[in-house]
Amino acid sequence: MSWFKRVLGKEKKETLDKGLEKSNRSFLDKMSRAVVGKTKVDDEVLDELEEILITSDVGVETTIKIINRIEERVARDKYVNSSELDKILREEIMGLLSENESSNFEGLSIPTLPNGDPYVIMVVGVNGVGKTTTIGKLAYQLKSKGKKVVLGAGDTFRAAAVDQLQIWSDNTGVPIIKQAMGSDPASVAYDTVQSAKAQGADVVLLDTAGRLHNKINLMNELSKIKRVMQKVIPDAPHDVMLVLDGSTGQNAFEQAKQFTQATEVTSLAITKLDGTAKGGVVIGISDQFQIPVKYIGVGEGMDDLQVFNKAEFVDSFFKKN
């Protein structure tokens, strides 16, 4: 590995550590209180741990899985020192994340399609989760990797959404396709993929309306967008990325539930982890929905939308200063 890559990797890990600092501090403080005066992992410690995981927004179902696994280890090993709990917990959470085979996304690599069509990423999520910002940062990073990117302003119901995406387009030098406010989002999607194909683009990042209205309407709207795009690129979209605000904790679980019922979500981006102690939501959502987390947002900078690496995430989450 080159010196440049080592330095860049170290800087990204430091940013991740800083971004998860609140989650890390909150979790470790609770853990230290749970094991104070204890020499072994017993039922009382496990009850405390269960409460800690749930209040850290790991989610009830995932918490129960983790506790059951630790109980099995305690029963098997007969005596587990309380000082080992941190290590055991790391191992079991890593195990859960590893069961989702695509938990580690291979960098910003975009597959090259056999027919040369652009790779279409349709981005979904409610207003306020950082959807447009995620698109802008991803466009910047992909362009920096030498990819030709086209943005589609498919959220035609909010002037602010189109304006915000236009600003990202201006700042990154990535072209944008847009129409008048109130236009049919499917029409914007059609124009975007048609233009991207004509330009020989590598990637399309298509924004969509961030309204979590009733599930049937949402399903119909997203289905129509897909059908229209497929008139130009038959297998589009190649990725449906759901953006969730990690700082909302359990509300992010509910949003994930609603969107996965309305459309086939194939990847996740979890934002705003730097301003919250709710980093455990990444563990729970990845486990419960079995959808790969591709990106996490750990800061305001252009490079602070990071490719999710489960080993580095777990290390930062449990890091002791």
Could you say which overall geometry the principal axes of the C-alpha atoms support? elongated
Roughly how much helix do the residues carry, as a percent range? 40-55%
Question: Cα distance, first to last residue?
Answer: 27 Å
Reading side by side through the largest sheet, how are the strands ordered? 3-2-4-1-5-6-7-8
Question: What's the β-strand tally?
Answer: 8
Strand percentage: 5-15%
Radius of gyration (CA) equals 21 Å
Number of helices: 12
What do the pLDDT scores average to? 88
Helix and strand succession?
HHHHHEHEHEHEHEHEHEEH
Structural class by sheet pairing and helices: alpha/beta
> Regions with pLDDT < 50 over 5+ consecutive residues?
1-8
Largest sheet geometry? 8 strands, mixed
Question: Summed up, what is this model?
Answer:
The chain has 321 residues and is α/β, with parallel strands linked by helices. 52% of the residues lie in helices and 12% in strands.
Overview of this structure, please?
The protein has 321 residues and is α/β, with parallel strands linked by helices. It has helices spanning 3-19, 21-35, 43-55, 60-77, 85-99, 131-144, 159-172, 185-199, 215-229, 250-262, 280-289, 310-318; strands at 119-124, 149-153, 176-177, 203-207, 239-245, 267-271, 293-297, 305-307. Helix 2 runs antiparallel to helix 3 and helix 10 packs parallel to helix 11.
